[in-house]
Amino acid sequence: MEYRQLGASGLKVPVLTLGTGTFGGTGELFAAFGTSGVEEATRLVDISLEAGLNMFDSADIYSAGNAETILGKAIAGRRDKVLISTKATFRLGDGPNDVGSSRQHLTKSIEASLKRLGTDYIDLFQLHGFDALTPVEETLSTLDHFVRAGKIRYIGVSNFSGWHLMKSLAVSERYGWARYVAHQAYYSLVGRTFEWELMPLAVDQKVGTVVWSPLGWARLTGKYRRGQPQPKDTRLTSQLAVDIGPPVDDEYLYKVVDALDEVAAETGRTVPQIALNWLLQRPTVATVIIGARNEDQLRQNLDAVGWNLTPEQVTKLETASAVTPSYPYFHQKGFSERNPFPTN
User: In sequence order, which ranges of 149-284 are alpha helices (DSSP H)?
Assistant: First the structure.
């Protein structure tokens, strides 16, 4: 397993992280992801650690906290061998303060996550989304307090726009508070808008990218192809999962899958392995979160590392997945002499 520096921090993380969205299966959305209980989750953690994957990502809303509880039991007795990342901000409860990034909600959420995970510290704590109703200063001072108290080692965000993240980094610098070192963002061969603004920001500000849904919300599993019926064993059989996930036009998807199939034939690798490997060659990507309903899926995803696509194969995939950027990005792209594409 390869390890990379997480943004402007001293923390080394594996290039693959195991997501726990498949742990628990509480509610319609997460039941569509997976239903691993403690025994199966423990087996997945065992296999991950054997392969050198020692980072596990969760969130308080995953199966209404059950995913964190299951993860905590799965790593019991080996906390010192793993890195835990988790998230909060989204609603978890019916009260007026059971949502957001206020001091009130974050304090309650962090303490509850620590209890569910059975640990006294979180390696990487991330805001699950931007809260425009809470002052950035309140949010960051709260997180800085938990860092100084030793309950959080590093902080990051998820699903921020460029100005959300840049404003937050400026506030941290102004007051000398803990700084975001990671951005957990959606990025895939069928979702490349991350490249337009967030990737250049990440390069400039040294923020490590933690990729979620690298297979395009299950569309790049190799099960979706032109002229074939939709598979039954996928999260997209849930209308809620379809509605909440990133939209992808069918014809665009098939065009990308066609290119993936060509590269698969050239390499002897699977479609998901190629999609994951492509991401691992992208600028700013520190780690890619993989999901696994079972042991077989996990082992296949783990085989996405240890090799690289050729430059010609990368070009083939990027040509098939290219889209015209929105303004002002298409305009900046036309001035590439002074706005070059980010490089590692």
Answer: 162-175, 198-205, 239-244, 250-267, 271-280
ω before 328 within 30° of 0 (cis)? yes
Query: Domain map of the chain by residue range?
Result: 3-333
Provide the 8-state DSSP code for 322: -
Residue positions annotated with a catalytic role: 62
Distance CA 117, CA 104 (A): 20
* End-to-end Cα distance, the chain: 19
Cα–Cα distance list, 289 to 13, 216, 267, 302, 311 (Å): 11, 12, 23, 11, 24
Query: Global pTM?
Result: 0.94
State the CATH architecture for 3-333: Alpha-Beta Barrel (3.20)
pLDDT in tens, 210-250: 999 999 988 999 888 887 777 776 766 677 777 777 889 99
Number of Cβ atoms within 10 Å of the Cβ of 80: 6
Reading the block at residue 309, the tokens are 């696509």
